[in-house]
Amino acid sequence: MKFTVAQLNYHIGNFSGNKELICKAIQKAKSAGSDLIIFSELCIPGYPPLDLLDRLDFIEKCDQTVQEIAKECTGIAAIVGSPTRNKMTEGKKLFNSALLLSEGEVLYSANKALLPTYDIFDEYRYFEPQKQFSVFLFKGLRLAITICEDLWDEQPFDNEFEKSRLYTVSPMEKLARQNPDIIINIAASPFSYTKIETRENIFISKAVKYKIPVISVNQTGANTELIFDGASIIINEKGKIFNQLPFFEEAVETYSFENIKSGTIFLEEQKIDSISLIHKALVTGLRDYFVKSGLRNSIIGLSGGIDSALCLCLAAEALGHENVRALLMPSRYSSDHSVSDAVALAKTLKVQYDIINIEKPFSAFEEDLAPVFNGMKPDVTEENIQARVRAILLMAVSNKYGCIVLNTSNKSEAAVGYGTLYGDMAGGLSLIGDVYKTDVYRLAGFINRNSKIIPEHIIKKLPSAELRPDQFDTDSLPDYNILDSILYQYIELQKPASRIIKEGADKDTVLKVIRMIDFNEYKRYQAPPVLRISSKAFGAGRRMPLVARH
Amino acid sequence: MKFTVAQLNYHIGNFSGNKELICKAIQKAKSAGSDLIIFSELCIPGYPPLDLLDRLDFIEKCDQTVQEIAKECTGIAAIVGSPTRNKMTEGKKLFNSALLLSEGEVLYSANKALLPTYDIFDEYRYFEPQKQFSVFLFKGLRLAITICEDLWDEQPFDNEFEKSRLYTVSPMEKLARQNPDIIINIAASPFSYTKIETRENIFISKAVKYKIPVISVNQTGANTELIFDGASIIINEKGKIFNQLPFFEEAVETYSFENIKSGTIFLEEQKIDSISLIHKALVTGLRDYFVKSGLRNSIIGLSGGIDSALCLCLAAEALGHENVRALLMPSRYSSDHSVSDAVALAKTLKVQYDIINIEKPFSAFEEDLAPVFNGMKPDVTEENIQARVRAILLMAVSNKYGCIVLNTSNKSEAAVGYGTLYGDMAGGLSLIGDVYKTDVYRLAGFINRNSKIIPEHIIKKLPSAELRPDQFDTDSLPDYNILDSILYQYIELQKPASRIIKEGADKDTVLKVIRMIDFNEYKRYQAPPVLRISSKAFGAGRRMPLVARH
């Protein structure tokens, strides 16, 4: 008995593309003599389809694609993920299903029981949870087929409340009563740099508990914010990792059951380097956003600071330097080195650049507004005008040449609202909006690991928005080490201010930072989608009321 | 036995404010000799608290506020809505509860069983559903206490799939076995102009089915996008409306059980006028956004078109003319009447206005971009620059004077992407982003019902963005009557293109419009929050993947 693990990169709503990928892998598996090829969760429509699931024609296309793929399954079976209709007259209209296809037919269907409905997940919005469980006998093996979260029944509810289990049902506990020989898990598990080991340990714990092997098939590639890291994993019946597929790459691998079950462990212990994985995640996320949107060209406002420098490197790597352009937009407040540093980087990366000084439109605005402003002193208004003039220029080149503006704001800035709406917060996609400033430096170090791509001066100088003379970030913000630590505790770990202070942070700083985070929800509401690399990114996974008192 | 219905306007996270409102109503009810005062769903934290529910300190404040209110309940009992802890070791940490408070204690707690998780609702994200049900004996009456959706068990799943029930449980069916004397329903039911009768009929059907009266207590006022219309309703045991509280206003009314049960029906049949209710909803939504954010001043870009004219009227009514300013920003393409019409309206409304011609900054951009554009022909780029120059001016005055920019885009434009991101799509709040253009005209007619506030010429002229010479909306869009009909069917009713065409719409027009809707998801992703008046508004209630093939 041979299993094939197919870790592929699906595209939401691209039924013909997904089908082609799947059929190619089926052919490859057949050549390898495989009995069963396993694809990942909701591979037919792509994940997450969100409210497209409310459309009847979308579901009909899922059904039709499943039927077409079933016909390809001659001499081999396949497990695919797709929404299917709930035939009961009560409950949500759909299930999130794993379908076992063979010789033109759907032989068996398992429905997801544990529907994640937290952070970026909204599965209970669409799906009815399964309540009955049965193993499926396939070529003499009893398969326990589960879908992603179905194996996460023991996860604690991840917040400041006392620890407890999020779910009241354990699908594997019920399936175990039917003596399965192997656990198959099809997943759509997005990358988060803090959750890699947690995920591995869940599969290991199930193998150990039930004394059977586990095959978990994840997908790779990105759909807008969500980046799937692949890393599909095969665990033997003793809970040792038998093999793991690569991070962020497609792969189709075939294994025999006997080898998986108790065979020699041939995977060496890997040291997980989170910065290199975050780098891969961002490049994958950016590339797929363009490929899947049918886009090619991008443009970045290059300030001479570290954030836009890092983004330019990521874009050149993900899209090819010939598909990236840079726009340098110095002002009366820009330091000389800002332009020379930016030019140096653009030249190193072979990225086309233009320089437009923003003085003319900026002073046109100043003049036009003078009668309305009636002698009032310059303040943040004039700083914002500069940032917005730059956004107009970027968007104009974007419109004229058909490029997408890449947003270069980092998570620390976005958190405290240190940015201008419709100014530097503009863009089609935020590359590093889930990367804290301290990690921006780490990523810059990673980019420079072999040769000095980002000029040393960009890395070493004090962060500044250069919107007024001698302005530095630290004028209005705490040191980034301190800031990021508070942000992480408040945003990712959801600790109350009182606990962050109790654990050693300066009270006034904590209260000031939290006030800034809470106050700036309205800005983030209008921010572009953010490539998600953490367990709590700004965007769809974090839903805050705007009109609220904190 | 006397009941008091308290229809109040709560503010998310404003525990002291909500408590004050509640305690005042308790005093009023005591004076009226009431035995039980009923408040609405989640009145303690305000609705919807969203991810604030993940914060331990937020829940602690709920607990504490409930305790404080319980102490006010001397000689009277109160039913309040609050999140409470799930004490089981498995499942979500919270329930959405109705708590009966009396003499300093929580005497009884009912938890919500049916947790709406569709459109703008995410309740399963936070709450464990209740599975046991019991009536509560209070002063000789058996109360069936339910929470909002708990009575909506029979609602069909609202889409193109075959009809069926969304829920597998009927809380009232279970409570009915314990012979209740009255159904109490505490609600947070947002306004939608298509659902007023549906909602009434649900309560009527329950009264008829179980032959007991129903008291449903809704809230009023708005929290960002969501506008609660009040209209709390009391139905007698024959299913006749005994009384209904006003739409969009606070009210505290006391009734005796005997009168409610079978007393004379003294409410006259009301003709529901949806345009007048939409008008009230928008004024309420706008006013509460400002009041609850602690804001006072607003600014609107006044173009001389009907959308901004309507918005200026709404703003003057909601905020007071002295708190609204208008900015007129004509360009080389503006017609003379655009300015004169806008000025006339501003004068009628006594709204302060300034005029800034955008020529200077616009031509500064043209000059600066010329070398980069290298002789390429004018196109949508230059149109967008004009819209964005206006946004900069609006935001600049907003920054300098501390006003909020009110967005004036309508739903028809937003749907087809007929607007400029960071240009006319900018603003802190979208007033009419859920109002189709054809309803914009109806609302303008309503505003002018007694006297001609909006100049006739603004209403009569052909819609134009005036971004190039002789440009009219109909150059690139179908007639708004046709467009809005297609939009309504695709967005609100979620009909597939094939069915819209089958039912009579022109095929090419339908396909073109739907392509525009799908293509422009990326623009709407960054739009401001939209006051919601329909059953499907853009924003949190409509979640579409950006990188998707349609």
Helices and strands, with pairings:
Two copies of one chain form a homodimer.
Chain A: E1 2-7, H1 15-31, E2 36-38, H2 56-72, E3 77-85, E4 94-102, E5 105-111, E6 136-138, E7 141-147, H3 171-176, E8 182-186, H4 196-210, E9 214-217, E10 220-223, E11 226-229, E12 233-235, E13 241-244, E14 251-256, H5 257-262, H6 274-293, E15 297-301, H7 306-319, E16 324-328, H8 336-349, E17 352-355, H9 359-373, H10 380-401, E18 403-407, H11 411-416, E19 429-430, H12 437-447, H13 456-460, H14 473-476, H15 480-492, H16 497-502, H17 507-519, H18 521-525
Helix pairs in contact in A: 1-2, 6-7, 6-12, 7-8, 7-12, 9-10, 15-17
Oligomeric category: homodimer
Strand order of the largest sheet of chain A: 5-4-3-2-1-14
* Rg of chain A, nearest Å: 26 Å
Number of helices of chain A: 18
The count of DSSP E runs of length 2 or more, i.e. the number of strands of chain A, is 19
Q: What percentage of the residues of chain A does DSSP assign to strands (E)?
A: 15-25%
Quickly give the structural class of chain A. Answer: alpha/beta
Which sheet architecture does the biggest sheet of chain A show? 6 strands, mixed
Report mean pLDDT of chain A, rounded to a whole number.
Answer: 95
Largest interface: A-B, 98 and 99 residues
Please give a structural write-up.
The structure is a homodimer of 550-residue chains. Chain A has helices at residues 15-31, 56-72, 171-176, 196-210, 257-262, 274-293, 306-319, 336-349, 359-373, 380-401, 411-416, 437-447, 456-460, 473-476, 480-492, 497-502, 507-519, 521-525; strands spanning 2-7, 36-38, 77-85, 94-102, 105-111, 136-138, 141-147, 182-186, 214-217, 220-223, 226-229, 233-235, 241-244, 251-256, 297-301, 324-328, 352-355, 403-407, 429-430. Chain A is α/β, with parallel strands linked by helices and 550 residues long. Chain A has 3 domains: 2-272, Carbon-nitrogen hydrolase (Nitrilase/N-carbamoyl-D-aminoacid amidohydrolase, 4-Layer Sandwich), CATH 3.60.110; 278-472 and 520-525, HUPs (Rossmann fold); 478-518. In chain A, the strands form 4 sheets. In chain A, strands 5-4-3-2-1-14 form a 6-stranded mixed β-sheet. Chain A is elongated and about 85 Å long. The N and C termini of chain A lie far apart (59 Å). At the A-B interface, helix 2, helix 6, helix 9 and helix 10 of A face helix 2, helix 6, helix 9 and helix 10 of B.
